[in-house]
Amino acid sequence: MGFTTILLLLVAGLVLSITVAVMLGPVAVAPGTVWRIALSHLPGLDQWIPVTWTRPEQYIVWEIRFPRVLLGVIVGGGLAVTGAAIQALIRNSLADPYILGVSSGASVTATLVIVFGAFGILGRFALPLSAFLGSLAAMLMVFALARVAGRISTTRLLLAGVAVSMMLSAVTSFIVTMAPNEKGIRDAMYWMMGSLAGAQWDTLLIPTLIIAGGTMILLTQYRSLNALLTGEEAAVTLGVNVQTFRMLIVIIASLLTGTVVAVSGSIGFVGLMIPHIVRLMVGSDHRRVLPVSLLAGAIFVVWADVCARLVLAPQELPIGIVTAVCGGPFFVWLLRRSSYSFGGEK
User: Fold this and answer.
1) Is the dihedral of CA 338, 341, 342, 346 positive or negative?
2) Strand partners, 148
3) What's the whole-model pTM score?
């Protein structure tokens, strides 16, 4: 199957997934109604679309479900693209966007907000902004620990990320145990397992711009990402400034991951699993891997959120549980595939 065909099928699949995800819920909505409501909010089209839906349907579709589904698209695409870049950078098939400790940094500040109401002056932006600042602080800590004699190696970067992640996870656990009430503990644990329930229209723009911008930058660097798969020495001979390029990728990956964690909490396995599936489909060329990962990750998170909403309805599962249930069996299957290769190595 050609690359263009795969892209077109994924785009069609994403549109279909968005439609079905908005339709499903305690109140079912017809697909035509979903898109009529959506199109009626576009400037210039509202006067051409007759109102055939009820006020409750408009509120459910436009104010609740559409922002949530679109946030799932942003989160899934961002995590998958970041995972593909990190795996190329570290040349490790088990690398994922959270390996640099970014998620743990966001969790510390987010739990402070949830449990103790810190940064209350920021209002409803307190949680996403504090989580982003926490992820940024974790990234700076990892950089500081990994830099020796002005240079950063992949090994030091991995070790620093693991060390910082463990330390900050311990801090998060301590904050949770000090919660003054049971609700604070439950809310903090729920956030740390990921959720799209807090999606609102006015919080979608900035994550969308950051994910789109980071993806475009990575796409312009696909040759360097491909070169890294052959090893650092080979990449240098191909003209890649490995130190500078590594720093660029780490900064972009941390920015994308911090943004995602800030708006959705920690959702695991997406950036770990999706790039592997994509390489099985299109190979290891990042000119193809990155856009396909973006679309595949978006589709996966949209459906994971549908499962999280409906499996135990009216209760809701953290989306991280759903992605973990999918991710574990996938890697068992991948482990048993003798024909699978990562970066050209069997």
Assistant:
1) positive
2) 151
3) 0.89
